[in-house]
Amino acid sequence: LLFFGARRRGRAAAGVVAVRILLAADGSVRQVELTASSGSRLLDEAALEAARASTFEPATRNRAPVASEAVANYRFELR
């Protein structure tokens, strides 16, 4: 939602944001952390919001679900 609002207001709506995502053993998102900014607060917030709304298959060790972490890169570009 933030991304589209930025676009309507004519603000920068292109860039890449890196986010570290800590996952619970059930695959739910426990915490998100910005690891590389796009230079735009609006794009950074949109990436964090997208990461929080994501769902994941749980990681497993010896066939049992375990907590894990992932890094996601969110690319925003105007088309």
Protein model, in words:
By secondary structure, the chain is of the alpha+beta class. 25% of the residues lie in helices and 41% in strands. It has helices spanning 2-8, 41-53; strands at residues 15-23, 29-36, 59-61, 64-66, 68-76. The strands form two sheets. Strands 2-1-5 form a three-stranded antiparallel β-sheet, covered by helices on one side. The chain has a two-stranded antiparallel ribbon with strand order 3-4. The longest helix is centred in the middle third of the chain and has 13 residues, at 41-53. The chain is elongated, with a radius of gyration of 14 Å. The model has no long low-confidence stretch (mean pLDDT 89).
Q: What is the overall number of helices?
A: 2
Q: What global shape is seen?
A: elongated
Query: Could you give a short account of the major beta sheet?
Result: 3 strands, antiparallel
Rg result:
14 Å
Query: Tally of extended strands?
Result: 5
Order of helix and strand elements from N to C terminus: HEEHEEE
Structural class: alpha+beta
Helix content: 25-40%
Mean pLDDT: 89
**What ranges have pLDDT less than 50 throughout 5 or more consecutive residues?**
none
Widest sheet, order of strands: 2-1-5
Considering the chains and any ligands shown, give keywords for the structure.
79 residues, alpha+beta, elongated, 3-stranded antiparallel β-sheet
